[in-house]
Design a protein that fits this description.
It is built from seven helices and no strands. It has about 180 residues and is mainly alpha-helical. The longest helix is centred in the first third of the chain and has 56 residues. It starts with a helix and ends in a 7-residue tail after the last helix.
Length: about 180
């Protein structure tokens, strides 16, 4: 009788550990999926930027430094690896794009160019999608990290090597500020 009770307790314990493990796997995969969604939107953004820069080049002859900054920031963002590096690179890219949009305000012909307006609209739409994807990713990371740190799941997480994920955050305070647009 004692062996049967011990066997039942052992089976329940194993099922409980398996359940926690599977929950952690599911959350880790949701974090990975959320990161993939950010990656898709960032790829779209990176594909649009050269078109925006090329369209602007014809009009913005005296703003070479701004255009080069956007191009370099895009190249850095494409090369970035990992959440922290990607977040930093994307913050710099966002800042460079904001400066470009401020420069564009001084060129009425460019502001009226249909190509530029269409690309700008696509970029705005993409920025919104990136924002939503970042928010979703951070929500998934929060759930996963909370589970990894909460008792008793943290015991299973530590036992099987589940590590906390990084949030997608902007490090530089100036990148958090909205650009100033003057008319």
């Amino acid at each position: 009788m004692e062996w049967i009770i011990l066997l039942i307790v052992l089976i329940v314990l194993v099922m409980w550990i398996v359940s926690m493990y599977n929950g952690l796997v599911r959350l880790r995969n949701q974090v990975r999926n959320a990161w993939s969604q950010i990656d898709v939107q960032l790829k779209r953004r990176h594909d649009l930027i050269p078109n925006l820069v090329e369209t602007a080049k014809g009009y913005v002859k005296h703003e070479r430094e701004t255009l080069e900054a956007v191009t370099q920031a895009r190249a850095d963002a494409v090369k970035a690896q990992g959440v922290a590096e990607q977040a930093k690179a994307e913050g710099k890219l966002q800042g460079a794009l904001s400066r470009l949009m401020l420069v564009v305000e001084n060129y009425p012909d460019l502001k009226a160019n249909q190509n530029f307006l269409q690309i700008q609209e696509e970029l705005t739409s993409t920025e919104n999608k990136v924002g939503f994807a970042r928010q979703f990713y951070n929500d998934q990371v929060l759930k996963y990290n909370t589970r990894c740190e909460s008792v008793p799941t943290n015991l299973v997480a530590n036992l099987f090597g589940f590590k906390k994920s990084d949030f997608f955050e902007i490090d530089t305070p100036s990148e958090r500020e909205a650009p100033k647009v003057q008319f």
